[in-house]
Amino acid sequence: MEKLLTNYFETASMILFGVGFVTLLLHNNLIKKIIGMNIMDTAVFLFFIAKGSIQGREAPIVTGVHKGIAGYINPIPTALMLTGIVVAVSVTAFALALTVKLYEKYGTIELDKIMEMRGD
């Protein structure tokens, strides 16, 4: 139990991922599925940022005295998460555009009703 409290960012990210995954699986509404996917994305970002952060070290921006390699955190996880955020926003925009097109064609965003109308 002590490790869970010490690593509360990692614990929170796992809980968020579970909430997003359950939302993605259990709801038929496309908007709710997109929200669940975004919650899962956020959980992954939080997890990697928490793992990339080391207490006692600074961001790799040298202002004044250089502290050596041991004085700074690795900037790669942060850079990868920034790229991941851009990709997540793009995927969300694309999914919302597809949802709008489905609504225009079928008049609903409920997946079970769309499958009924298609005859599948």
Automatic annotation (TrEMBL):
It is a multi-pass membrane protein. It is found in: Membrane. Keywords: Membrane, Transmembrane, Transmembrane helix. The chain crosses the membrane at residues 6-26, 38-56, 76-98. Its main location: membrane. The keyword Transmembrane applies. PANTHER family: ANTIPORTER SUBUNIT MNHC2-RELATED, MULTISUBUNIT SODIUM_HYDROGEN ANTIPORTER, MNHC SUBUNIT. This is Cation:proton antiporter subunit C.
